[in-house]
């Protein structure tokens, strides 16, 4: 597959300098002597995909096993069209092995599993099982291993890092309408302009303590310029933090180089660790000895004297000091299985394929689903996610002029898995490690079929 991006500059920011992904898709169609809308293009792109073999490392649900399917509309033995990795990633095939190793340790050793190993490759006692994930996670978020913590869940971590805004403001007696500044899109638009964000920071920054953004917006799929936001906020003396739930494992991140103060993420979306699995945090090394947790837990005590039980809290520096209780060996094993898959490639390679997948999805939607028009002549399908590939990740949010829940029901009958958000949006996410170009092709055609059934 031709290279379409180059990672240049000291912070390795992705710059599209060769060609737009959509132009490359069109060029491939011309080379293969087929139309962009032909099924042949999807199969030929899959044949050339250097990351295509990763699909075999995941359990892809079969159509026959999904709920709500209509037997007359599916081929039972075929793979389902799963485009919901932005909500829950699929299970790596090695997950069961990783988990069974921990269950085996528990069954044979009991409490000894906390501090001893089974003499197997990669085995760690439960007291340190999270630490095995620091280095693997650091390459995904662009950080040093010492800046990573694996603990709790996303929302719990956000509370402990003090940036679930409304809750923390209410807890401290502030009026949220006065103490919380929200940025909204311009009138009639759905996206935030980077200029508007930076201008607002410049206007309000002198009175702001913490700036918190998502890396990728969950509803629209917009990818924010985290580096520029960080620099603008810190120039005003603000702490800058990010919720990376929809960004981690999706787009390249360089948290350390960007100077981000802290961040947190869940691991069950693009990181494929399983529903409700253990989450991650980043705290920049510049804060490791200057910032202490407000709410402490015994597992945040330094390891050497943790069990002295002398009621003298000695916090570990950095993210380790924010740990509350001992991590689950089973949950860490689930995450470990997925991170091992990520370690076999790079976020740069993942991003390159992701740009092509979403460009292909956008092209097919625009060519095959501009119909039937509404009474005023407008299309019944509109993509809310930015068309600029550098302002989006793997997700495209598709607004429909017909009831989205009814369309989703018809998609489920056809073994298509995506999700919907009110008032009328389908969120579709072709995930690089297990989705194919043919998945995208099938989805658009099945969406077209579903929409023809739903009454306007």
Give a description of the structure.
The protein has helices spanning 21-31, 39-48, 95-109, 134-141, 154-160, 165-171, 176-179, 194-204, 226-235, 255-258, 329-342, 347-368, 404-413, 437-453; strands spanning 6-8, 13-15, 81-82, 148-151, 210-214, 239-243, 262-265, 279-283, 381-383, 396-400, 416-417, 419-421, 425-428. With 456 residues, it is an alpha/beta fold. The chain has a five-stranded mixed sheet, with helices on both faces. It has a four-stranded antiparallel sheet with strand order 9-10-13-12, covered by helices on one side. The chain has a two-stranded antiparallel ribbon with strand order 1-2. α3 packs antiparallel against α11 (329-342) and α13 (404-413) packs across α14. The longest helix is centred in the last third of the chain and has 22 residues, at 347-368. Its EC number is 3.7.1.3. Keywords: Cytoplasm, Hydrolase, Pyridine nucleotide biosynthesis, Pyridoxal phosphate.
Give structural attributes:
456 residues, alpha/beta, 4-stranded antiparallel beta sheet, 14 helices, 13 strands, 11% strand, disordered N terminus, hydrolase, PyrdxlP-dep_Trfase_major, PyrdxlP-dep_Trfase_small
């Amino acid at each position: 597959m031709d290279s379409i991006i180059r990672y240049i500059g000291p912070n390795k920011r992705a710059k599209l300098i060769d060609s737009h992904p959509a132009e490359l898709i069109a060029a491939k169609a011309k080379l293969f002597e087929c139309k962009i809308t032909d099924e042949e293009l999807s199969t030929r792109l899959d044949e050339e995909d250097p990351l295509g073999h990763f699909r075999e490392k995941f359990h892809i649900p079969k159509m026959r096993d999904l709920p709500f399917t209509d037997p007359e509309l599916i081929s039972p033995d075929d793979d389902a069209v799963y485009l919901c990795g932005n909500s829950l990633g699929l299970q790596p095939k090695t997950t069961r092995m990783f988990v069974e190793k921990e269950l085996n340790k528990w069954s044979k050793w009991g409490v000894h599993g906390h501090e001893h190993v089974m003499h197997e490759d990669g085995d760690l006692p439960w007291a340190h099982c999270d630490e095995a994930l620091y280095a693997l996670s650091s390459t995904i978020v662009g950080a040093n291993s010492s800046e990573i913590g694996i603990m709790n869940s996303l929302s719990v971590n956000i509370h402990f890092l003090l940036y679930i805004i409304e809750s923390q403001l209410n807890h401290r007696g502030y009026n949220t309408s006065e103490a919380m500044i929200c940025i909204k899109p311009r009138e009639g638009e759905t996206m935030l302009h980077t200029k508007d964000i930076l201008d607002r920071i410049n206007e309000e920054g002198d009175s702001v303590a913490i700036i918190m953004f998502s890396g990728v917006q969950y509803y629209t799929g917009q990818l924010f310029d985290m580096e520029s936001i960080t620099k603008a906020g810190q120039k005003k003396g603000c702490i800058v933090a990010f919720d990376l739930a929809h960004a981690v494992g999706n787009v390249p991140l360089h948290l350390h180089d960007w100077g981000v103060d802290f961040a947190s993420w869940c691991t069950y979306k693009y990181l494929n660790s399983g529903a409700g699995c253990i989450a991650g945090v980043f705290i920049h090394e510049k804060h490791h000895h200057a910032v202490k947790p407000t709410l402490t837990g015994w597992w945040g005590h330094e390891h050497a004297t943790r069990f002295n039980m002398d009621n003298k809290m000695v916090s570990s520096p950095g993210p380790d000091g924010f740990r509350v209780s001992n991590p689950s060996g089973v949950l860490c094993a689930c995450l470990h299985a997925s991170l091992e898959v990520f370690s076999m490639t790079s976020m740069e390679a993942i991003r390159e394929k992701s740009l092509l997948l979403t460009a292909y999805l956008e092209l097919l939607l625009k060519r095959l689903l501009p119909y039937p028009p509404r009474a005023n002549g407008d299309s019944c399908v509109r993509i809310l996610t930015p068309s600029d590939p550098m302002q989006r990740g793997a997700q495209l949010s598709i607004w429909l002029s017909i009831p989205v829940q009814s369309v989703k029901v018809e998609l489920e009958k056809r073994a298509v898995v995506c999700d919907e958000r009110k008032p009328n949006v389908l969120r579709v996410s072709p995930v690089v490690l297990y989705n194919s170009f043919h998945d995208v092709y099938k989805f658009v055609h099945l969406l077209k079929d579903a929409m023809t059934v739903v009454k306007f």
